[in-house]
Amino acid sequence: MLVVEDDATVRDVVARYLGDAGHRVELAGDGPSGLEAAVRGEPDVVVLDLMLPGLSGLEVCRALRARRTNAAIVMLTALGEEDDRVLGLELGADDYVTKPFSPRELVLRVGSVLRRTAPVDGPDAPLVDGDLRVEPAARRAFLGAVELALTTREFDLLAFLLARPGRAFTRAELLAQVWGWDFGDHSTVTVHVRRLREKIEADPTQPRRIATIWGTGYRYDGAA
């Protein structure tokens, strides 16, 4: 696990709590060294501050996703940085924690991300819709012969909806049932639906698979 945070006090506190929870932690204090450590060490999770010297957290996130890394990314953001949080999610961050935060909350969020990314035991049947194929047990998704580069959240959302075609869900229900959040910004769901459409729809501006139910949320209709 890698923690990239320029505030030494916050960095040390986060590292101590994560270490006490059983995680092996590497530390970096700026964007360039954080990116280098993430590429070199291939951590399971990168805890990434948004405001970093050298390279911003957004730039580091963009660079990591361009390399198609499988690392989950949890961003640390300030309370007033809503636009940057949304942009972080659009760039491929899996979760975010708003400063000031409880270190225990961060440990719980990291644990939740790790559980979602862990391979699933058992013969989970693939989910298929035309040329779209999702393999829950392997946590892989394909469009035709091409494997899709999905973040943890995108994969969880797609698998959830594909397993329940024709049923409408509110954004609050998706937050709770897909990611286990009893609270949170509903725009998180909107961002991930938009990113999924860009990856699985022939024309994301006129989606056929994931339909918007105005005033409610979303429904998986399928490609046919």
Explain this structure.
- The chain has helices at residues 8-20, 31-41, 57-66, 82-91, 103-117, 152-162, 171-179, 187-200, and strands at residues 2-4, 26-28, 45-49, 72-78, 95-99, 127-129, 132-135, 140-143, 146-147, 168-170, 210-213, 217-220.
- It is 42% helix and 21% strand.
- α1 (8-20) crosses α5, α3 (57-66) packs parallel to α4 and α6 crosses α8.
- This is DNA-binding response regulator.
Which descriptors apply to this entry?
2 domains, alpha/beta, 12 strands, 4-stranded antiparallel beta sheet, Rossmann fold, Arc Repressor Mutant, subunit A, 5-stranded parallel beta sheet, single chain, 224 residues
In terms of per-residue confidence, which ranges show pLDDT below 50 for 5 or more consecutive residues? Answer: none
CATH superfamily of the largest domain: Response regulator
Strand content: 15-25%
User: In which range does the helix fraction lie?
Assistant: 40-55%
Question: Sheet bearing the most strands, described?
Answer: 5 strands, parallel
Oligomer category = single chain
Total of DSSP H or I helical runs spanning 4+ residues: 8
SSE series: EHEHEHEHEHEEEEHEHHEE
CATH architecture of the largest domain: 3-Layer(aba) Sandwich
**CA radius of gyration:** 18 Å
